[in-house]
Amino acid sequence: MNFEFATATRIIFGPGSIQQAASLAAQIASSAFVVTGRSIERAMPLLEQLSIHRIKYVPFGVPAEPTTAIAKQAIQQARQTKAALVIAVGGGSALDTAKVVASMLTNSGELEDYLEVVGKGKKLTQAPVPYIAIPTTAGTGAEVTNNSVLGVPEYHRKVSMRSPLMLPYIALVDPELTYSMPPPLTASTGLDALTQLLEVYVSNKANPLTDAVCKEGLKRAARSLRLAYENGANHAARQDMALASLFSGLALANAKLGAVHGLAGPLGGLIAAPHGVICARLLPYVMHANVNALLSREPYSPALARFDDIAQILTGNLAAKALDGLTWVRNLCSALKLPPLDELGLNEKDFPAIVADSRKSSSMKGNPVELTDDELIEVLKKACKQNA
Q: Less Cβ around it within 10 Å: N or C end of the chain?
């Protein structure tokens, strides 16, 4: 068995660890480009720290899930400031945008030169400027991944910029920053983490290290996602979900995802819905399709036993089987009040194009079994029904 495992140069985790951010930044540079979410005010404690440490900074707010247009605007502004350090404080949108900015500050050309699927897919040749990633949500794990996901409205899809060089210099994860997340955001981000952990565990690219972090992350998400949704002041649950998110990022950066994320890419460019909601609505039906396909076409695949493992972790029942895990996921999605995808704008006429586009996704290549077009269309049909 051969595998590699790479992550951020340094990971700092723990309540109150945000207090270290400015002093860490001061050790790197005297100027910074700071990427935040739509509300720059939420980043004010960090910005005040930077001022105290005499670090000049230019803030940039990401108003929504990042698109190529938003990323280009940030890149242009960062290049003008000649920042020696990039800091992101926010959700996955801010972290992904900052990752692209840090990369484009040292690599020539246009953003499209480095985008997969819709661009030239060129490799980065220069290491990005140092980048500190500070998540304020618990879901994407973007603080330890080596890619950024950007929407491309003109192509109605989301694509990645990807390179081993894009791993952040420092990932600073403070669970206290997630305490103020409202229930819908807790649900969508937490379900994204759960999906990533689950898909990597059954991926055909899984390895012993990703197995370990996936199992631990799944255990924490299983016991704490609903608790954090129901009571955002549950500090133990918030810490569990911050770790589950971190572990999901560690896992996906070192293996591959699967058909859920393969479909979620084109879906995210087509309908206005949070990525985590799309993933969660697809997840139980992709699980079902995968288990059925494995039973009929690859009955001796070790992935089947992994679906049983997942069921046992999620339910806490050591006798649970794969379909018990599917039922657990469906019940969780119901408890977290996720709407079916047709209520979010998905139309059956779009199914063939979505499936065709999903074939181009790197995530689809990690699925434990190759699903047919008919199987993928059936997944989309069920995800559009309230009680499929």
A: N
